Amino acid sequence: MPKTKKEIGGIDDKKPKVYKSLRGFRDILPDSQVYWDKVEDAARKIATDYSFDRIRLPYLEQTQLFERSVGKGTDIVDKEMFSFVDPSNTKVTLRPEATAQVVRTYIEHGMLNKPQPVKLWYFGPMFRHDRPQAGRYRQFWQFGLEAIGSNEPIIDAQIIIICFRLLKELGLDVTVQINSIGTPESRRDYIMELVSYFKQFRRQLSETDKKRLQKNPLRLLDSKEPEIQELKVDAPQIVDWLDDTSKQDFMKVLEYLDEAEVPYELNPFLVRGLDYYSKTVFEIIPNVTREVVNENEEEKSQNALGGGGRYDGLVEMLGGREGTPAMGAALGIERIILAMKAQEVPINKQREIDVFFCQLGEAARRKGLSVFEQFRSAGITTGEAFGKGSLKTQLEMADKLKAKVALILGQKEVLDGTIIIRDMESGAQEIVDVKKVVEIVQKQLGG
Ligand code: AMP
């Protein structure tokens, strides 16, 4: 008896398996591209205007890079990294964030020898094995800015200003929240104070917060656990423990923001979980959903469009020159787009074209390939529907795309070496020499 497909190791089912994208990984379909293009174009422009240079970095790094920089005891390193051992037995991780990477690049490529600060920007995907929900994905995109090699508070302000202005230019209504967490030295005493404060309420804390109290007490301040929300209000505040330089620098940052008319709120609970931060830390929150969001701390943090801060110790920690200061920020692209949709930012969804090329019959279709290419290389935005046969359908498409002019090429025109130009508004048509059509249309379009 002949063997079944299953018996010879094939898939038994007649229907092939239908694959789906992985949980937390999203396809960004053509419909959304207008938003993505708008955000990326605006990001590129503002970063360039402020003299930041673009870098593109690999998605995979040695696991240790993130363990050392982001820090053990953080959610990212403890729970969220996509790590595996590669075929050459190296422990690697899909980057969960890019700051550590940029610092690695700065050190590896000797950027120390360039004029400081070295100002870099990136736009690319990050990977975190987080619990997926609205605005939180396992692959998401960030636009980031890093300025390495200057401790001037104006650099902190400049990065905040860029993030704020970019979001404004994208039509968003946002607020900057800001805090200073001082130097690691000044933080040490504060953390002792914080620990002794929360120890009184140890019993009331959730298991997660009990662990934080031991491992990373600063994180208690941005904890989303409901039990801690009231306790936080009376907790000692870090600004009262800042050393003089941190305090003066913080005041300067605020003055620069005032000068640049960037509105901000002081948020004493903002600590930004990662180990490498020092002094200025900030986040940017969209305004429209703030009231709803403020009721729910978890949603609030999920709502941040971006944030960043100073990381004066990181370069040294990763083997760079002692005492190299740095400041950076990252904005989440999906969150920005969600906010643009929520705040109903007007956006032109339709691709606008000047000319639409219509063809009738096989000979016209063939000839049309070169006519279309002539328009394209002349820089005239031209639509087409080579796959369609009916003139009516093609003219309807031309109308929908708001073409000013339609070109009609039929069997007869191909034989005569002509083409019809139709003014889409008046419906007036003229027959012209196909060799001159680009030039004639260019004049009609006023170019
Ligand atoms: P972070 O440095 O973790 O605060 O990330 C900076 C920004 O990236 C956040 O404010 C979000 O806009 C975005 N972001 C972080 N994690 C995710 C995620 N899992 N999904 C989507 N966006 C994220």
From TrEMBL:
<comment type="subunit">
    <text>Homodimer.</text>
</comment>
<dbReference type="GO" id="GO:0006427">
    <property type="term" value="P:histidyl-tRNA aminoacylation"/>
</dbReference>
<feature type="domain" description="Aminoacyl-transfer RNA synthetases class-II family profile">
    <location>
        <begin position="23"/>
        <end position="340"/>
    </location>
</feature>
<dbReference type="InterPro" id="IPR006195">
    <property type="entry name" value="aa-tRNA-synth_II"/>
</dbReference>
<dbReference type="InterPro" id="IPR036621">
    <property type="entry name" value="Anticodon-bd_dom_sf"/>
</dbReference>
<keyword id="KW-0547">Nucleotide-binding</keyword>
<feature type="binding site">
    <location>
        <position position="142"/>
    </location>
    <ligand>
        <name>L-histidine</name>
    </ligand>
</feature>
<dbReference type="GO" id="GO:0005737">
    <property type="term" value="C:cytoplasm"/>
</dbReference>
<keyword id="KW-0436">Ligase</keyword>
<feature type="binding site">
    <location>
        <position position="272"/>
    </location>
    <ligand>
        <name>L-histidine</name>
    </ligand>
</feature>
<feature type="binding site">
    <location>
        <position position="146"/>
    </location>
    <ligand>
        <name>L-histidine</name>
    </ligand>
</feature>
<dbReference type="InterPro" id="IPR004516">
    <property type="entry name" value="HisRS/HisZ"/>
</dbReference>
<feature type="binding site">
    <location>
        <begin position="276"/>
        <end position="277"/>
    </location>
    <ligand>
        <name>L-histidine</name>
    </ligand>
</feature>
<dbReference type="InterPro" id="IPR045864">
    <property type="entry name" value="aa-tRNA-synth_II/BPL/LPL"/>
</dbReference>
<keyword id="KW-0963">Cytoplasm</keyword>
<comment type="similarity">
    <text>Belongs to the class-II aminoacyl-tRNA synthetase family.</text>
</comment>
<feature type="binding site">
    <location>
        <begin position="97"/>
        <end position="99"/>
    </location>
    <ligand>
        <name>L-histidine</name>
    </ligand>
</feature>
<protein>
    <recommendedName>
        <fullName>Histidine--tRNA ligase</fullName>
        <ecNumber>6.1.1.21</ecNumber>
    </recommendedName>
</protein>
<dbReference type="GO" id="GO:0004821">
    <property type="term" value="F:histidine-tRNA ligase activity"/>
</dbReference>
<dbReference type="Pfam" id="PF13393">
    <property type="entry name" value="tRNA-synt_His"/>
</dbReference>
<dbReference type="Pfam" id="PF03129">
    <property type="entry name" value="HGTP_anticodon"/>
</dbReference>
<feature type="binding site">
    <location>
        <position position="128"/>
    </location>
    <ligand>
        <name>L-histidine</name>
    </ligand>
</feature>
<dbReference type="InterPro" id="IPR015807">
    <property type="entry name" value="His-tRNA-ligase"/>
</dbReference>
<keyword id="KW-0067">ATP-binding</keyword>
<dbReference type="InterPro" id="IPR041715">
    <property type="entry name" value="HisRS-like_core"/>
</dbReference>
<keyword id="KW-0648">Protein biosynthesis</keyword>
<dbReference type="InterPro" id="IPR033656">
    <property type="entry name" value="HisRS_anticodon"/>
</dbReference>
<keyword id="KW-0030">Aminoacyl-tRNA synthetase</keyword>
<dbReference type="InterPro" id="IPR004154">
    <property type="entry name" value="Anticodon-bd"/>
</dbReference>
<dbReference type="GO" id="GO:0005524">
    <property type="term" value="F:ATP binding"/>
</dbReference>
